[in-house]
Design goal:
Bound molecules: pyridoxal-5'-phosphate
Helix content: 25-40%
Strand content: 15-25%
CATH architecture of one domain: 3-Layer(aba) Sandwich
Structural class: alpha/beta
Number of helices: 12
Low-confidence stretches: none
Order of helices and strands: EEEEHEHEHEHEHEHHEHEHHEHHE
Mean pLDDT: 96
Radius of gyration: 19 Å
CATH topology of one domain: Rossmann fold
Strand order of the largest sheet: 4-5-13-10-11-12
């Protein structure tokens, strides 16, 4: 379907697309996929109702069937009552809760497992705050590839239950995702399993591009002024930023299209990207003692820090945090006002949007799209 190579996001070194690739060996930064064949065409979208509709823009080979559970094609719902409460002209929520295993992680792992299966890996391992482990477990089961997941023992119970239900190896640890990350690297080295940790391989970000592709198509092939994304490791944001630029470059959007301002939201209990953004730094320093009930945001030292900070600055974006009580209040409000069973991460995104509008940092006449990245049901004990 498409032709691409891999390029280090830092030094520009190239790798072959079919190599089992981790980080760039020279600078230990992530690779990204660069499409080098015929320009992908919007007219070639497939008549199917999952994220592989966008196959021309994704790393899929001619004749290759993706590993899929019907991920993507999630609703984009305009919510005038929430817009009024937040104080902006128009506001939509893109509800990722309806994906397989109930979060947007399905998109990235569908793409990563598709590529890994093609390479015939011995198995797949991931460190997770929860949802990535559930998604990998499901796509591993779908692909018939063995999976091991490292997750904090504090991961919400329903997510651990989902991982177990898929029959994969689950190791719960006394620590956070950074600790799980070190164990995954060690296990991959000893077992030969391939590590699909956030941005350690390039294809989860490619799958996450469909967050932006769908948004553009659902709005009639245009983009909003602002997108708000609850951010942990950063691959959701990086995928969207990448595809916004690709869509303009490929002529899928009018050439005068402005990139949406990318707003990264975190909890004040773990806000390394907000701290780095406020300091004008191009790297984040690890957050000490990370604590938040929005477990997807409990990523103290994201590997994609440089790319996320670049995405924010290049789009005149913002990084900002809300405290735990404010996150709880907006999560509950979103459910009771709209019927969307938001994850705390989605509540965090709406909470920070309200704060930024009140502070005059998001204009009242803006069109804002907020991502609800997961399901409230996954977090109820
Ligand atoms: C993983 C996750 C996030 C953070 O996404 P990143 O791509 O790691 O920044 C946000 N919300 C939920 C529900 C998640 O599972």
């Amino acid at each position: 379907m498409s032709s691409w190579y891999l390029e280090c996001s830092s030094c520009g070194a190239r790798a072959e697309q079919h190599a089992p690739v981790g980080l760039c060996p020279a600078c230990t930064q992530p690779y990204l996929a660069i499409y080098d064949g015929a320009t992908p065409r919007r007219d070639d979208l497939l008549p199917r109702w999952d994220m592989w509709r966008y196959a021309p823009a994704l790393p899929l080979l001619r004749g290759e069937a993706p590993v899929t559970l019907g991920e993507g094609c999630t609703p984009l719902t305009e919510l005038p009552a929430v817009a009024a409460e937040v104080g902006v002209r128009r506001l939509w929520v893109k509800d990722e809760a309806v994906n397989p295993t109930a979060s947007f992680k399905a998109r990235g792992l569908a793409a990563a497992v598709t590529r890994a299966k093609h390479r015939g890996v011995a198995g797949l391992v991931v460190p997770t705050a929860g949802n990535a482990g559930a998604a990998l477990a499901a796509y591993g089961a779908a692909a018939g590839v063995p999976v091991r997941v490292y997750a904090p023992e504090t991961t919400p119970r329903p997510i651990l239950d989902t991982i177990r239900a898929m029959g994969v190896e689950l190791v719960t640890i006394d620590g956070h995702i950074g600790d799980a990350g070190r164990m995954s690297v060690a296990f991959a080295a000893e077992s030969g399993y391939f590590n699909v940790a956030t941005l350690r391989e390039p294809y989860r970000a490619e799958g996450n591009k469909t967050l932006g592709l769908e948004l553009a198509e659902q709005l009639g092939w245009r983009l909003p002024d602002v997108v708000v994304y609850p951010t942990g490791g950063g691959e959701g944001v990086i995928g969207m930023w990448k595809v916004f630029k690709e869509m303009i470059q490929w002529g899928w959007l009018p050439p005068e299209t402005r990139l949406p301002r990318i707003v990264v939201t975190q909890s004040t209990g773990c806000a390394p990207l907000v701290r780095a953004f406020d300091a004008g730094a191009d790297r984040a320093t690890p957050w000490e003692n990370p604590v938040t009930h929005a477990s997807g945001l409990r990523v103290p030292g994201p590997l994609g820090d440089r790319l996320v900070l670049r995405a924010i600055r290049e789009t005149d974006g913002i990084a900002a945090a809300a405290d735990e009580d404010t996150i709880r209040a907006w999560t509950a409000r979103l459910a009771s006002r709209t019927g969307i069973d938001a994850a705390p991460e989605g509540g965090c995104a709406v909470a920070v949007t309200a704060q930024l509008v009140a502070a005059g940092r998001i204009a009242r006449d803006a069109e804002v799209v907020v991502y609800n990245t997961g399901s409230g049901a996954s977090y109820r004990a």
